[in-house]
Each structure stands twice: as structure tokens, then as C-alpha cells.
Design a protein that fits this description.
single chain, alpha+beta, Alpha-Beta Plaits, four-stranded antiparallel sheet, 5 helices
Length: about 190
């Protein structure tokens, strides 16, 4: 009797599992069809966008590219950059120069190339700062140069770094920058 009951419960469990599996399979197929439709629509829109791009004069392309860069610059978090820099600079290192060279997107994330000049008397503090930058998750730092300076009263070194700054939670829609990048001849 008990084995018969277990057999009935197992059969019911198998039927429920197969029903659930069939339902998931049907849902998966429906989602695949929606994805295929969306990809086709995206290809069509990109094709139309390329046709419009080809009709633009070189001056219009330059204006369009400049306007997209302005949008990227406007959405860039300048105060966030300064706050993130301040959080990784040790007390014995001070910033002497900050130059944002380029703002671009990488996988829908806004990033900036920054040339940073810092002053310090102590090389180990600069190395600690670079380590802090790397550990913060916001910066990839590369030491590019150093220039020893000496005055009558003190001596210090100015270090030049190239930073790739990647603020958190700052995303720009790909469509805006795709146009600017295709105008400039490729992605970064």
C-alpha cells in the first residue's frame, strides 16, 4: 500500500515537473522570438541612421560630433571626480594639475582620461596613492613621469600620471555616443 502511494506521488511529481518544464520552454521560445524582433528593429534603425550619416556634409558631421561630446561632458560628474580624487590622495601628496583629456564610453559606462600632476617629497606616498586609486575601483593609474624640483628652502618632485577614471552609476545611452563615435571613425 505504501509503495503504491509513493508511486502515485512520484508520478504526480513527474507530471508537475514536466508541465513546469514545458511551460518554461514555451516562455523561452516566446522570449527568443521577441529578442529576434528587437534585434531586427535595431538593425533597421542603425541602417537608417547610417543613411542619414552619409547624407551629412563634413561640416554637419563636425557639428553633430561636437554636440554629442558636449552632451557627454555635461553628463560627466565633475564634482564626483574631484571628490573621488580627494578620497585617494594622501596628506603628503597634493594635486598640481588636473587635465581631462577625453570623455568616452566603454560598455555603456562613462570614462575619462585624466592627466594628473601631483607634488610630493616622498615617492612611497605617491606609490601608496596609486595603490589607493587602483583599490578604489574608480581609477586605473599609470605613472608617466617625474620631475625633481629644488628651491632654496625645499625640494620636491612633480609626478605625472595618466588616469582612466570610471565613476560609479554613470551611464550614457549608447545611441548618443554611437553616432559620435561613427562620425569620428571608430570606437575608443
Amino acid at each position: 500500500m505504501l509503495s503504491g502511494l509513493m508511486l502515485v506521488v512520484a508520478a504526480l511529481g513527474l507530471i508537475i515537473f514536466l508541465s513546469w518544464l514545458r511551460e518554461n520552454s514555451q516562455e523561452n521560445e516566446a522570449l527568443k522570438a521577441r529578442i529576434a524582433e528587437s534585434e531586427a528593429a535595431i538593425r533597421q534603425l542603425k541602417g537608417e541612421g547610417e543613411k542619414v550619416q552619409q547624407q551629412l556634409t563634413p561640416d554637419q558631421r563636425a557639428v553633430l560630433s561636437a554636440s554629442h561630446k558636449l552632451v557627454a561632458n555635461k553628463t560627466f560628474g565633475w564634482s564626483r571626480l574631484f571628490a573621488d580624487l580627494e578620497s585617494v590622495l594622501p596628506g603628503s601628496v597634493s594635486a598640481s594639475r588636473i587635465v581631462v583629456q577625453n570623455i568616452y564610453t566603454d560598455a555603456d559606462r562613462v570614462k575619462a582620461e585624466v592627466e594628473l600632476g601631483v607634488l610630493s617629497r616622498d615617492y612611497t606616498s605617491v606609490i601608496a596613492m596609486i595603490r589607493n586609486m587602483e583599490n578604489s575601483g574608480h581609477f586605473k593609474a599609470e605613472l608617466r613621469g617625474q620631475d625633481f624640483q629644488q628651491t632654496d628652502r625645499t625640494s620636491y618632485t612633480e609626478y605625472t600620471l595618466l588616469l582612466i577614471y570610471s565613476p560609479t552609476n554613470l551611464v550614457i545611452p549608447a545611441t548618443t555616443l554611437d553616432v559620435a563615435q561613427s562620425i569620428e571613425g571608430g570606437e575608443r
